[in-house]
From TrEMBL:
Organism: Heliobacterium mobile (Heliobacillus mobilis)
Role according to the record: Involved in the maturation of [NiFe] hydrogenases. Required for nickel insertion into the metal center of the hydrogenase.
Family per similarity comment: Belongs to the HypA/HybF family.
A Pfam short name: HypA
Name of the molecule in the record: Hydrogenase maturation factor HypA
Residues where Ni(2+) binds: 2
Keyword Metal-binding belongs to the record: yes
UniProt: Zn(2+) binding residues: 74, 77, 91, 94
One Gene Ontology MF term: zinc ion binding
Biological processes annotated in GO: protein maturation
Keyword entries, A-Z: Metal-binding, Nickel, Zinc
């Protein structure tokens, strides 16, 4: 499962950060998950429910997920817009096809808490 591998690498980062801040037990984690990361929140929750049984987590640790839509910016007219279809990047204002992705690729830890 794709999400299990993603979650494991996020937990690696988290474990290092927790150590740095002298946190023994992580109780809450918030993730930012962009649509384009192709990570399903339900599958991430499941992976987390397995991983939280091990340090640095408290066994009741919670995972909060904030999903972010995909947004693009047109290179010709600079319009910014939500991308409905992740495979179709067309500027709704001028029809331009040169579109930069400005949001949606995120898969990161926003913050975590513990003691
Ligand atoms: Zn445009």
């Amino acid at each position: 499962m794709h999400e299990m591998a993603l979650m494991e690498s996020l937990v690696d980062v988290l474990a290092k950060e927790a150590k740095k801040h002298n946190i023994q037990q992580v109780k809450k984690v918030k993730l930012i998950v962009g649509q384009l990361s192709h990570a399903l929140p339900d599958a991430l929750q499941f992976a987390f429910s397995v991983l939280r049984q091990y340090p640095p987590f408290s066994s009741e640790a919670e995972l909060e997920i904030e999903e972010r839509e995909t947004r693009g910016r047109c290179q010709s007219c600079s319009a910014e817009f939500a991308v409905e279809d992740n495979y179709l990047f067309i500027c709704p204002q001028c029809g331009g096809l040169a579109v930069d992705i400005v949001q949606g690729r995120e898969l990161q830890i926003d913050y975590f808490e513990g003691d």
